[in-house]
Structures are given as structure tokens and as C-alpha cells.
Amino acid sequence: MVVSALDVSVQAQILNLLAELRAEFSLALVFVSHDLRVVRWLSDRVMVLYHGRVVESGPTLEVLDTPLHPYTQLLAASVPGRVRQALDRVVHEPPSPFELGAGCAFRPRCSLAEERCGREQPLTVGAQRRLACWTVSAEAPPTTQSVSSDA
To answer: Is the model's pTM score more than 0.70?
Structure first.
């Protein structure tokens, strides 16, 4: 179901209906969206993808309020009204999805990238909170300088 193309009031009605159905029948939903405010409102757990690869997952409020993966940090900072915390600009354009290579897809845009990031795709590790990054731990506090911003 596509709700982003709908009038805002109709979109709200459909999202409210989904929430009611979910609560009444204990339904599990797979909800795909670029609107993190809606994801925050509707979802208990979230999975963040970059070029089709999982980079971070876990309880929605944890992932969106304290993002660990550099891409999740960039995504969270892009929500209108949020403090950008040193993620003012991104120098590098996203890589072509056809030329991702063996390593981390976010590597060309990440200031934390190491040589290993270009050779091997990181494993998604963690218990409740899962993270695919060689340089950040699933238990580590988030960094604020994770996206390349050099001139």
C-alpha cells in the first residue's frame, strides 16, 4: 500500500486504521517508508537499509533517538526539525547500486571507514540492537562526526 502519494488527511486515516488493526488483532506489519516520523509513530522495531543492505536494526525509539551506524545518523539528522549534530553536509554522492563491491556500501560516504570496510561486508551483530559496521560497536555510544564533511 502506498500512502505517501495520498492527501495528508487520507494518509492519516489509513495510518490510524493500520494502528487500530494492529492493536486489535495483534498483527505484525512490514511497513516500508522513508518518512521516519511515521515509522516512529507506527513501528515497534525498525530495520534501516542502505542500498538494500541492513545497516542497523532494533527497537524503533532506540535506533532513531541514538543511531549508531553512520548512515542511520545521517538519516535521523535529515528529519525536519531535528538538530543536525555535525551532519550539515555530505560531500560524496551515493555510489551506484550496480557498483557496490564487496565491502560496506556506505564506505565512500563514511569518515570512519577503514581499509577493511572496502574489502569485507560487515556482519550484522548484536542482540536487541543489530549493527553492520566494522568501526562502531552495537554497545558503543553514537558518534556525531560519522559522515564525511571535508571540503
So the answer is: yes
Residue pair 129/63 in contact by the 8 Å Cβ criterion? yes
Write down the number of H helices and E strands in the chain. 5, 4
Q: What cell was used for 79?
A: 528529519
CA angle (145, 149, 151) in 5-degree steps = 150
64-95 confidence digits (pLDDT tens): 999 999 899 888 888 877 665 545 445 567 77
> Distance (Å, rounded) from C-alpha 145 to C-alpha 95?
20
- Is residue 74 a contact partner of residue 90, using CB atoms and an 8 Å limit? yes
Of 39, 71, 37, 36, whose CA–CA distance to 54 is shortest? Answer: 71
Contact by Cβ (8 Å): 104, 122: yes
Dihedral of CA atoms 43, 6, 72, 76 in degrees, nearest 10, equals: -90
Please give the span between the terminal C-alpha atoms of the chain, in angstroms, as a whole number: 41
pLDDT digits (tens, 9 = 90+) for 100-126: 778 888 888 888 888 898 888 887 777
Rg for the chain, CA atoms, rounded: 17
Which parts of the chain are beta strand (E)?
Answer: 45-50, 53-59, 124-125, 130-132
